[in-house]
Design a protein that fits this description.
The chain is of the alpha/beta class. Helix content is 32%, strand content 24%. The chain folds into two domains: 237 residues, Rossmann fold; 61 residues, no CATH class. The protein is built from ten helices and eleven strands.
Length: 305
């Protein structure tokens, strides 16, 4: 388990967006390591302007792909998150020895973390739902969950998750989707020479990629909104029947650009929500693009009065 160049780029992007300004504490599924060369890591952090970076703090990267490897703790500390915890039966890198197949009952740690992650760990748990319920319970409202799982690739885990898994989890639990991308990993090179890149989350784009030459993973950043306990996602009509809404509408918030889900009961509900949420934007668009229609509407209202 570990973070390659793709997830490191992803986190650096979030850092540039200012998201790490509110992140001090991190808890990860699995005792995560940095699986990349010192040269690749150095290039990424320099390109993103991380001025506090000291190459000597990441000396173990010079040994990759040998061991011992650098703990992911160092990356989060570089990004500003000083308090680090991870959960793993192997207890490596100071991990709490917890079986992720089973409930995490230490309530003193519930809602104590600003960021929780899963980088290729939870798919190794047969009881994968319990592993994600644990992450949800550990995460503070307003905090972030980052999941990166292989999608188009051979894997030694039990599961391969596609986009519907991430978005179902988000919809059922009211998470906002802050960022989502594919991660590509070169396959036809020695391990220490393989680079990872982030590309848009577009299945159309995959049609022009040789899937025999790259491994494709999916990475999502979700933001928790409430203190409600974990809700098991359902699909299609069962989302409505079991979770009390007629569907979800996907929308983009303007500042910062994130996606979220809104349960809807009727067309009128969508219109009312849009007016309440984006009133200023709607008025500005009307004033800019439809001034004559607006003037005519005002005149009609005046005549009726």
């Amino acid at each position: 388990m570990g973070l390659g160049g793709g997830p490191v780029r992803f986190f650096c992007d979030l850092w540039q967006r200012g998201i790490f300004e509110s992140i001090d504490s991190v808890c990860e599924s699995g005792s995560q390591e940095l699986n990349m060369t010192a040269k690749e890591f150095h290039g990424i952090v320099q390109a993103h302007g991380l001025s506090d970076y000291d190459r000597q703090d990441f000396a173990l990267l010079d040994k990759f792909p040998g061991t011992p490897r650098e703990s992911a703790r160092k990356l989060y500390q570089l990004l500003g998150a000083q308090n680090y915890t991870c959960l793993d039966l192997n207890k490596e890198h100071g991990a709490i020895g917890h079986d992720l197949n089973t409930p995490f009952d230490d309530r003193s740690k519930w809602e104590q973390f600003d960021l929780v992650t899963d980088f290729g760990c939870n798919e190794h748990c047969f009881n994968v739902m319990e592993a994600y319920r644990t992450l949800h319970r550990l995460l503070k409202p307003g905090g972030y969950m980052v999941i990166c799982q292989p999608r188009y690739a051979e894997t030694n885990g039990y599961y391969l998750m596609d986009e519907s898994f991430y978005e179902g989890l988000a919809a059922a639990n009211g998470y906002k989707i802050v960022q989502a991308q594919y991660v590509t990993t070169e396959l036809n090179r020695a391990r220490e020479e393989r680079e990872q890149f982030l590309i848009p989350l577009s299945r159309d784009l995959l049609r022009i990629i040789d899937l025999n030459a790259v491994k494709i993973s999916i990475i999502y950043c979700l933001q928790k909104v409430s203190s409600e306990d974990f809700v098991i996602p359902y699909q299609d009509k069962f989302l409505s029947e079991r979770q009390g809404n007629a569907g979800y509408i996907q929308y983009f918030e303007r500042r910062p650009p994130v996606r979220s889900y809104l349960p809807i009961e009727s067309a009128e509900g969508v219109v009312n929500w849009a007016l309440q949420t984006h009133r200023e934007y709607i008025i500005r668009e009307i004033l800019t693009k439809h001034p004559e229609e607006l003037k005519a509407a005002i005149d009609r209202i005046g005549q009726q009065a």
